[in-house]
């Protein structure tokens, strides 16, 4: 019996080994779904889909440079959405902590809220920070009316994103073979010169109160660029002087203040003397004490809105007077 058991044990081990290494175990079977799906359906599953996403789950893009105002155009968009819905989907990206971040479609989102909608159609796309920034800027720069401050911060954000992506080293002119830096690439796509883009970005160095004056067209673009080279304290002194004296610097005055600032010789007294000097071809100004008229305007009215209303009322008075004289 002992002699018969010895050859049986190696045979048993060999059988177990063969059972474990059965070739059929390594065969990967195609699933039923794969067997009956077409190439078209597999491609379709990879396409981006338009989803109705609750507005409460969509947050704004961080530091979004474009203002979303409930102005007349916004109210018209809200009325259109009430009737027809959002015709062009927004673009969002998923957030790591849940929900979505708006990339393109902030105005449509606001109009949807005003229209009483709870959801908005959106394309969901996985984007990194720089990709999302570039798309956000490009989609908003297509608008007709853009404030200087909006364009300034938008260009700055896109330029920084392009630099992080390394686009300044791998882009060339196809015909000249010349390397493009980020400013040139941005200029090529925006239709503005490299220098003009740089000048817009300079506006981001202005304090908010002066930048608002630029948006309201109370300070011209060129003087504003020169003022941007002043320190924050110098800009604060300039703003106070502009308010108290009801004046703004010309281009030559702004350039002088810039040079004096660079030499460390600019202070509030110098600013006052420059702003109050008589300018070439300066006409006598008509002044009304602020206290006499401020009580007639809403508190949130800007200086530009006050001026426009005064002119409008004067035009109405003038036309009425003309009609009375013609009788």
TrEMBL record:
Span-the-membrane segments of this chain are none
CDD domains membership: ParB_N_like
Query: Which part of the chain is the ParB-like N-terminal domain?
Result: 51-141
InterPro entries per the record?
Chromosome_partition/occlusion (IPR050336), HTH_ParB/Spo0J (IPR041468), ParB/RepB/Spo0J (IPR004437), ParB/Sulfiredoxin_sf (IPR036086), ParB_N (IPR003115)
Q: Name one GO biological process term.
A: chromosome segregation
Pfam families listed in its UniProt record: HTH_ParB (PF17762), ParB_N (PF02195)
Q: Which GO terms describe its cellular component?
A: chromosome
UniProt similarity note: Belongs to the ParB family.
Q: What is this protein called?
A: Chromosome partitioning protein ParB
Which species is listed as the source? Clostridium thermosuccinogenes
């Amino acid at each position: 019996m002992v002699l018969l058991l010895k050859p049986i044990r190696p045979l048993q081990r060999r059988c177990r080994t063969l059972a474990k290494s059965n070739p059929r175990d390594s065969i990967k079977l195609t699933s039923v779904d794969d067997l009956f799906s077409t190439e078209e359906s597999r491609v379709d599953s990879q396409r981006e889909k338009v989803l109705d996403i609750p507005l409460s789950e969509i947050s704004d893009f961080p530091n979004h440079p474009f203002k979303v105002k409930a102005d007349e155009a916004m109210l018209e968009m809200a009325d259109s959405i009430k009737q027809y819905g959002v015709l062009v989907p927004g673009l969002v990206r998923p957030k790591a902590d849940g929900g979505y971040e708006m990339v393109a479609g902030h105005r449509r989102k606001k109009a949807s809220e005003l229209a009483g909608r709870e959801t908005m159609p959106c394309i969901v796309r996985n984007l990194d920070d720089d990709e999302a920034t570039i798309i956000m800027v490009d989609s908003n720069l297509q608008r007709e009316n853009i404030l200087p401050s909006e364009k300034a911060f938008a260009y700055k954000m896109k330029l920084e994103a392009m630099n992080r992506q390394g686009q300044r080293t791998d882009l060339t002119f196809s015909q000249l073979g010349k390397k493009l830096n980020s400013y040139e690439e941005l200029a090529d796509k925006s239709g503005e010169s490299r220098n003009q883009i740089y000048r817009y970005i300079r506006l981001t160095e202005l304090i908010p109160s002066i930048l608002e004056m630029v948006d309201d067209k109370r300070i011209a673009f060129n003087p504003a660029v020169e003022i941007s080279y002043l320190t924050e304290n110098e800009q604060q002194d300039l703003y106070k002087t502009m308010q108290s004296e009801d004046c703004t610097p010309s281009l030559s005055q702004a350039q002088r203040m810039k040079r004096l600032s660079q030499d460390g010789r600019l202070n509030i007294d110098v600013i006052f003397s420059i702003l109050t000097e008589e300018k070439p071809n300066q006409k006598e100004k008509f002044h009304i004490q602020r206290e006499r008229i401020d009580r007639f305007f809403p508190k949130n009215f800007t200086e530009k809105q006050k001026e426009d209303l005064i002119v409008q009322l004067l035009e109405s008075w003038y036309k009425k007077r003309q009609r009375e004289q013609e009788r």
